[in-house]
Design brief:
This protein has one domain (21-474). The chain has 17 helices and no strands. The radius of gyration is 22 Å and the shape is globular. The chain has helices spanning 21-53, 55-62, 65-92, 95-130, 138-148, 152-166, 172-195, 199-223, 240-272, 277-313, 317-344, 346-351, 359-372, 376-391, 396-417, 424-428, 430-455. The longest helix is centred in the middle third of the chain and has 37 residues, at 277-313.
Length: 479
């Protein structure tokens, strides 16, 4: 029988007692920094290739973002299930279950990564053709993606391992690991592109090397852990009862990520239909900048899931309400601050991504930023509400709402509105509209189910919820 140490380490957080705001920030800020560093992997690719390989190479790298996110979000979403399954069992003292979840999760990450590598390298050209990639960049985009997909095992291993560490409140060590691998990524980018003249192949190779470094570090950390979180390589394997619990939470979360990514692929395909490298490059530069704004808000989405999940399981529903309000508030503040900074300094920021003198590319980037970066806080509200819903036991409904409100609305927009107003601006404005509609539905649903969800845990034992639906999704998410 595994025993859990009773003394918390300095990087662990007691989420169920004491002040809320400072603990939210203590948890979220390293998470935010980790997400920003992870974005630097792709941003370093885009900046270096844009400066030293030209706008065609920039468009080739940047236009792959939506497709990459689509293909990996399902598996990364599963790490959400791992996060909550491990956190729930830790809180309930089921340390043998924790150990089984750790070993099953890391095995699942490795197998999924290998599957993604095989699928990506075989299908990448066909996928880019389905997306109507511009003819003058599709060859470069194919080279980049085929190399990038060899990093999938490392990417998923890191995400699952980091999810396990977050379950005990540890967001610092993943930050340290990403910082180190991010520095390596930037240095290798410069070396491969400037010294060896490898262009898109060089930036892809630098990215996967840095991903394997971060994966190795998180595995090393888990191997050296004490108690139930300790990873023993000879115990790696799949236990289907654990996989079922992970899928109950992670699959809806992953599907929701896929839904949003699919809608982004549709928008990217519509942008590609202009067959304009200047527009594609400007949109790619803007999308990279927007990613940093989203990362700042997304940290509070992930914080809401973990904090709400633990307190809901403990029956502290009044505390859940306070956590929900504070996470939404922090998300709005960060979205407004980072979004408006991105727009007002957009010309300077976009200039990092393109060669000197490409004023038309920068102008296109500013147009997109005005439609997406400034109202991005609406997306933050929407996502944080999803985190709260998953924390109180609802994972499927947010997925369905997002399917209709995000993917469905954008598909209809591209099919009906875009042919009438055939401009890039018409495509961009579909984003804030879909956030507003989807977020409103999430809020209404939360207000409708709140009392019923709270009644299930107030004064009851957490284990009474095992196997029941919807609380099976209380093991909700995320990264």
């Amino acid at each position: 029988m595994l025993k859990q140490r009773s003394v918390k380490r300095r990087y662990e957080i007691d989420m169920c007692n004491g002040s809320i705001a400072d603990k939210i920030l203590l948890f979220a800020l390293p998470l935010m920094a980790s997400s920003l560093l992870q974005l630097l992997f792709n941003a370093a690719d885009v900046v270096v290739v844009g400066k030293f390989a030209g706008k065609e190479a920039l468009a080739a790298v940047g236009s792959n973002t939506a497709l990459i996110n689509l293909l990996i979000n399902l598996f990364v979403g599963l790490s959400v299930g791992t996060n909550v399954v491990v956190a729930r069992d830790l809180g309930a003292g089921r340390h043998d279950n924790v150990s089984r979840s750790v070993h099953t999760s890391m095995t699942l990450a490795l197998i999924s990564g290998v599957v993604m590598t095989v699928f990506g390298t075989v299908m990448v050209r066909q996928l880019l053709e389905w997306m109507s990639s511009p003819t003058d960049v599709i060859d470069l985009a194919t080279v980049y993606l085929r190399i990038y997909f060899f990093g999938m095992p490392a990417l998923l291993t890191y995400n699952f391992g980091a999810a396990i560490l977050r379950a005990q409140g540890d967001t610092r060590r993943p930050l340290y690991f990403l910082f180190l691998s991010g520095v390596v990524n930037v240095v290798l980018n410069l070396f491969f592109v400037i010294v060896l003249h490898m262009d898109v192949a060089g930036v892809a190779l630098a990215t996967i090397i840095s991903q394997y470094i971060s994966a190795a570090l998180v595995v090393w950390c888990l191997v050296r852990e004490e108690g139930a979180l300790r990873l023993e390589l000879n115990k790696l394997g799949l236990q289907w009862s654990v996989i079922r619990r992970i899928l109950q939470v992670g699959l809806p979360a992953g599907c929701q990520g896929v839904v949003f990514s699919l809608s982004n692929v549709v928008i990217q395909s519509a942008i590609n239909s202009f067959d304009d490298p200047v527009l594609a490059a400007g949109s790619s530069a803007s999308a990279s900048i927007e990613g940093f704004v989203y990362a700042a808000m997304n940290a509070f989405y992930q914080t809401a899931i973990t904090f709400v999940g633990q307190n809901y399981g403990a029956g502290k529903c009044k505390r859940v309400d306070r956590i929900a309000v504070q996470c939404v508030s922090f998300s709005v503040i960060s979205g407004l601050a980072f979004g408006n900074l991105a727009y007002f300094f957009g010309e300077t920021l976009a200039g990092f991504y393109v060669p000197a003198g490409e004023h038309e590319v920068i102008a296109q980037a500013l147009i997109r930023l005005s439609f997406i970066a400034c109202p991005y806080f609406i997306c933050g509200i929407m996502d944080t509400l999803v985190g709260v819903l998953r924390g109180i036991g609802y994972s499927v409904v947010p997925m369905v709402v997002s399917l209709v409100g995000a993917c469905g609305l954008r598909l209809v927009w591209v099919a009906v509105i875009f042919p009438v107003y055939h401009t890039a601006s018409c495509l961009y404005i579909s984003y804030p509209i879909s956030w507003l509609v989807t977020g409103a539905v999430h809020l209404i649903f939360f207000l409708c189910v709140r009392k019923r969800a709270y009644a299930k845990v107030e004064g009851s034992d957490l284990t009474a919820l095992e196997g029941r639906h919807p609380p099976l999704s209380q093991e909700a998410e995320r990264q």
